[in-house]
Write a structure and sequence with these properties.
Length: about 220
């Protein structure tokens, strides 16, 4: 079983003290910084842009887990400083050519992620699996931090893992995003997920320090 990896959601960090939080995340050995880039069309919210991604490069060596919740991600992808160890994820439901974006991401040496909204099944994206490194399963209606997990989404993790393994795609990692608490992460780890996006439910928890929550989360996904 692949090592469990923690990808911390930057939209849940203290944006007025982002460098402080990033430094603390780096000290505590998180695996990725998860960057949600939204367009207010694919989802009803606006978050970060390429300037934020490029700015992070100046303050940290942590690989980036870039998640484009956009109808047309092409221009934004080409505006970012993408590195070899990054994950760059676009949605299967976007309105552009998946393969054109795959080619650019792979050319940069990054890993290609394909995100599925809650009502999109893994069977619907079967033709893209030869090019996929990570399947990102949205467990909530995407757009806002703190949303509730949709009933039945945890079972989708296990079903997706089984589907991938039966087709010989055991190399594809499953990432989970949305209301991922330590307890839920532990169960989804057993179901076959290996990358966990930690936000308000798992990492940025009221009354707890980041070193405490990260330690607890990492223990949950690696036991």
């Amino acid at each position: 079983m692949k090592k469990g990896k923690l990808s911390v959601s930057m939209m849940c960090a203290d944006l007025m003290n982002i460098e402080r939080d990033v430094n603390e995340l780096e000290r505590n050995g998180v695996d990725y910084l998860h960057i949600d880039i939204m367009d207010a069309a694919f989802v009803p919210n606006l978050t970060f842009g390429p300037d934020f991604v490029n700015g992070l490069r100046k303050i940290t060596e942590i690989p980036l887990d870039i998640h484009l919740l956009m109808e047309h991600p092409r221009v934004i992808i080409r505006s970012m400083d993408i590195h070899e160890n990054d994950i760059v994820t676009i949605h299967s439901e976007c309105k552009e050519s998946i393969m054109e974006n795959v080619a650019f991401i792979k050319q940069k040496g990054a890993r290609f992620g394909l995100a599925l909204n809650p009502d999109t099944t893994i069977e619907e994206v079967k033709k893209y699996l030869p090019y996929v490194d990570v399947i990102l399963l949205m467990l909530i209606v995407p757009g806002f931090a703190g949303s509730m997990m949709i009933h039945g989404m945890m079972e989708k993790v296990g079903n997706t893992r089984t589907f991938l393994d039966e087709l010989g795609y055991d190399n594809i990692e499953i990432s989970v995003d949305g209301s991922v608490s330590c307890e839920r992460a532990k169960h989804m780890r057993e179901m076959g997920a290996s990358i966990f996006v930690g936000g308000t439910a798992g990492v940025f928890r009221k009354g707890m320090q980041l070193n405490e929550t990260i330690h607890e989360f990492k223990n949950a996904i690696n036991k």
